Amino acid sequence: MRTEQTVFNIIWLDDQIDTLYKDSKRILRDAGIKVLDQGAHDVEEFEKQIQKFRYVVDAVVTDANINLKVKEDFSGLVRVSYLIENNKRPIPFFVYTGRDSLMRDNVYKDIIDKYVDVFEKQKGIEPLINAIKETVLKVNSKEFRIHNKYKKELEAASLISGNEDVLMKALLYEDAGDWSNTKIYFNSMRSVADSIFSACKREKIIPDVGDLNQISRFLRNNDKNDNETYVILQEIMPKPLARGLWYFLNITQDASHNKDELELKVVKYVQETQNINLFRSVLYIAMDLCLWYAKCKEELNAPDYKRKWERRGISINSERPQVKKLIQDYEYEGIVRKREDTGRYYSGKYLLANPKDGRYKEGDTIRIIKSEDNDYKFCSEEGEEVDRFVFLCNIRKV
Fold this sequence. Notes:
398 residues, alpha/beta, Rossmann fold, five-stranded mixed beta sheet
């Protein structure tokens, strides 16, 4: 039984293409390599061919010194590399030249090294043929195609150990369209989010407000700032993604169980529909979370970086208008007084815990965050009954 040969379509650019093609036609045919339009003689012909065959070309082969009128002129090669780089899909690019050593010393060396593999004509065409076949098969593999398509997302995921591998496996699963093991992959996406926010807490991108659901609530309420301990000074996560995170956690939490009492019954839904579209929505949010974390890391390294959240009461003397607007968490502001007979400190109707480490002194303006009933009631020198007591932790000097 005859096995159908894999065909590799190439565009071959060389000013001597007629002779080269004639001499190598047989070996190329035996290797399954087809030279489209029997090659191109110059950059202009190449540009027409790359447009004509942009959906079928598998690789490009070109000479280094395309313009024979000007020796050591590799500008044509750079033009070719530009056209290939700006193609909508990746195309392997090879240089087949008799001027290998000269090209390596040329001013275009950095550009050439970035885009191409170089083969010497003096060593024959077989090494080039082998490289074309090996590279094209790799580029056309599912793994390569997916990694190239989601390069930025996978690079962002790699900032946290293990996440790139988890995300790549999920992308391969999504590409296959299999729905039978979706529960496992829902769980893996939640683990990606968990590792991201654990890193965010370690690096002080967000405060430690609790578990994933509490983090989501904190990030989703940028304008309300109803957390009892922390206040947001500047948007930490864009609102669409913060809302997406809320959806993401609801779906993945439900999908991690099979219990009938679950509200959404995600696993049952996937089994009934026999598709993974719901999983795809979670996967793409996970990738956005990876990109968001990468951006946060980049901001952390900026010299003018300022933290976007603050513990309530720590910087109440800040001149930033957003801080003045948001911090409304104290019940009293006044001046510290001291009773001469007892040496006790008070302010208004509040008896203050004795100061330590210079926390406050007589005459300071303070704010009181929280107070409780005072069993030791007395009348201040100003004639006001002092009936509230304040622990030191609830006193802030302005």
